[in-house]
Amino acid sequence: MNIEEYFEYISRRKNIDDEDTWPYILNPDVYENYRNLSLLSSLRKIEVLNTYKPASIEKINHEYDLFTVIPFRSRYLHLEKTIESLLNSHKGENFSLGILVVENSEISIASSITSKFENVYYRWLDSGRKLFNKCICHNIGGGVTKSKFLHFHDCDLIVPPEFYKELYNKLTLGCVIQGFAQRRVNYINKSNSIKFFEGKSLEKIINSSKNYITGIKGASGGSIAISRSLFNQVGGFDSQLFWEFGPEDCFFWTKVEKIQPIVGLNNPLVELYHIWHPLNYGSNPFEVFDNKVYEIFKNMDSHDEYRETARLVYNEINNHIIK
Question: How many whole angstroms separate alpha carbon 200 and alpha carbon 297?
Answer without folding.
Answer: 44
